[in-house]
């Protein structure tokens, strides 16, 4: 990652955003730093780690005693509530935290209970995003750990029950991807597929934060369909980026039109960026790295008002929301992974100054008025700032991050602890408690705190000491880079292309049935009637979509990337575009079709919406040499 450019000159910044300049000037006096003598000693780190462990069990035991097998705990009234799908959500989300804490007994009996009792053939409409990151991710992480000696937590009696559950669940989510853009619906019914009245509007994070879990599942089951649909969703989103390389917050999954054009790194978009980089880190798939580099560069150029980030209109770059929102706080942690530490340090300090001011971060803090944004006053036990604190401590070993962690523990213990767990804070100015405890409190918030102080005390956990590298999902789930996950060959896919894999030629989804690749037939799982409306009615034999596992000789690197950023529409797809002229208005959304010519050569044909010429400058460029 190249060093960040200086984004604004002082005068330029005053012109563009005077209130931010003012904030920059005064922030150090409004939110003074701790003095150095507060530094946490190694002995204190050990005590704090133990305190976090006690926090975990206070909440986990409260959940198990009063809420399990319901999804989440009402920590004040000591009751359970079903919030997502009625499938012991908090237990699934907690599995790998139990592993980190070395609680073999609870991990084993939890895995056994889930294997015997969990079922997904239920008439529930669930969020594709939340179900993926919390449930699918929790199951896969626990499976990878429980099935492998090298994790040190293998369960001898374990027989892949969680993997089978994960596969069953993911197949029930697949109907959501049956859209003209490839971007999934936000919700799907686990029994009946997508309801005909389901909203066609989804968030960018919702559509673009599925690649890790689905990609792992493909590599574990040898069925590329999971990896494929989620990669196409990312391509579908990225193909619709603005000329500034920004994405909006909400999009119509049928027309591909942005319905909310505010670009930012927080609410509704955050983990889209996160999974671009992490999918590259876990799978080594350079396509994700390429998109990440472009997306990150644009974010740092248009959204970064050092040390803060704002929301801008994705087309014009004009600031629309001068807000810090608490979901943005994962960004410094991501920057650590990207190797861009200096801006991460400054941004973390700014975000932490908000925490210090209120004892928690509000969902929204207005950078113009320097006050809590009305309607965004709560702190629902979010992990993001703690997550970034952990990554920055890991990268720098600067004790100020331990001081920050200690402050966060103090806030949680004095402000949020309630009889059976930890309560949401409904207003950070009055510290009023609310009777909810999101499952991510145990999956992420406590996990990152524990990891922070474990690292300082002399690490004793599988992430630091084990043989595998671990990628953390956006829900904090641990994905070990086992050979099966990380060294599997990339699954290739082509829209409108033939691809040779050995002597097997895949020409269309319908041709896959009955072949060895029949498992990959996308028609199999889509729709409530088990048929794909896309595959059955919208593809012709000439321009086809094929799912092929393995390497793809015959395509250059550039060709591979060239076909990566196309809208998943082609003239042969029977879909009424008469009203979506805007979709192609910037000329960026275009299809590049590779057909096989004589002598195994490849012929490139550009298919463009509304015949808008696409200049060379508009074509995706590969900048991998910049790494
Ligand atoms: C978690 O479910 C995940 O971290 C997600 O990416 C964002 N929201 C919550 C935590 O705030």
TrEMBL record:
This is Uncharacterized protein. It comes from Melastoma candidum.
């Amino acid at each position: 990652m190249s060093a960040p450019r200086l984004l604004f000159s002082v005068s330029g910044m005053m012109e563009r955003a005077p209130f931010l300049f003012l904030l920059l000037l005064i922030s150090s006096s409004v939110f003074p730093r701790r003095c150095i003598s507060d530094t946490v000693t190694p002995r204190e780190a050990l005590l704090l780690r133990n305190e976090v462990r006690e926090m975990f069990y206070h909440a986990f035991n409260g959940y198990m005693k009063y809420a399990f097998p319901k999804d989440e705990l009402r920590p004040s009234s000591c009751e359970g509530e079903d919030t997502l799908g009625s499938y012991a959500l908090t237990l699934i989300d907690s599995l790998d935290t139990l592993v980190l804490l070395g609680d073999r007994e609870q991990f084993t009996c939890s895995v056994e209970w889930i294997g015997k009792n969990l079922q997904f053939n239920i008439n529930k409409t669930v969020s594709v995003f939340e179900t993926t990151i919390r449930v699918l991710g929790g199951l896969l992480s626990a499976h990878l750990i429980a099935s492998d000696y090298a994790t040190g937590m293998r369960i001898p009696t374990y027989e892949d029950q969680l993997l089978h559950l994960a596969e069953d669940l993911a197949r029930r989510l697949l109907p959501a991807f049956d859209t003209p853009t490839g971007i999934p619906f936000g919700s799907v019914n686990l029994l009946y597929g997508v309801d005909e009245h389901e909203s066609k509007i989804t968030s960018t994070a919702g559509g673009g934060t599925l690649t890790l879990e689905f990609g792992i599942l493909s590599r574990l089951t040898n069925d590329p369909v999971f990896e494929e649909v989620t990669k196409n969703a990312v391509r579908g989103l990225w193909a619709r980026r603005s000329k500034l390389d920004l994405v909006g917050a909400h999009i119509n999954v049928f027309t591909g039109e942005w319905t909310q054009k505010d670009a930012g790194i927080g609410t509704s978009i955050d983990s889209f960026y996160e999974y671009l980089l992490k999918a590259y880190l876990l799978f080594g798939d350079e396509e994700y790295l390429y998109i990440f580099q472009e997306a990150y560069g644009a974010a740092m150029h248009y959204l970064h008002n050092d040390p803060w980030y704002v929301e801008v209109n994705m087309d014009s770059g004009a600031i629309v929301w001068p807000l810090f929102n608490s979901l943005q706080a994962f960004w410094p942690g991501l920057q650590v992974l990207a190797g861009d530490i200096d801006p991460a340090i400054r941004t973390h300090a700014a975000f932490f100054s908000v925490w210090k001011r209120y004892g928690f971060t509000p969902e929204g803090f207005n950078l113009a008025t320097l006050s809590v944004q009305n309607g965004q006053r709560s702190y629902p036990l979010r992990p993001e700032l703690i997550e970034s604190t952990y990554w920055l401590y890991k990268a720098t070993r600067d004790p100020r991050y331990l001081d920050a962690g200690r402050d966060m523990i103090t806030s949680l213990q004095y402000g949020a602890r309630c009889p059976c767990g930890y309560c949401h804070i409904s207003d950070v100015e009055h510290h009023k408690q609310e009777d909810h405890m999101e499952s991510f409190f145990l999956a992420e918030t406590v996990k990152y705190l524990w990891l922070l102080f474990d690292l300082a005390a002399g690490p004793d956990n599988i992430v630091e000491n084990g043989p595998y590298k671990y990628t953390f999902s956006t829900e904090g789930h641990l994905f070990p880079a086992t050979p099966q996950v990380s060294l599997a060959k990339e699954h290739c896919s082509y829209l409108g292309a033939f691809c040779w894999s050995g002597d097997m030629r895949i020409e269309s989804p319908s041709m896959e049935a009955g072949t060895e690749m029949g498992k990959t037939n996308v028609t199999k799982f889509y729709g409530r009637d088990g048929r794909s409306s896309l595959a059955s009615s919208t593809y012709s034999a000439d321009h086809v979509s094929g799912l092929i596992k393995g390497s793809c000789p015959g395509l250059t690197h550039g060709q591979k990337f060239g076909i990566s950023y196309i809208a998943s529409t082609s003239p042969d797809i029977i879909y009424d575009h008469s009203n979506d002229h805007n979709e192609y208005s910037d000329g960026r959304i275009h299809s590049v079709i590779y057909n096989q010519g004589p002598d195994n050569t490849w012929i490139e044909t550009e298919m463009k919406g509304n015949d808008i010429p696409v200049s060379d400058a508009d074509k995706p460029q590969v900048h991998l040499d910049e790494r």
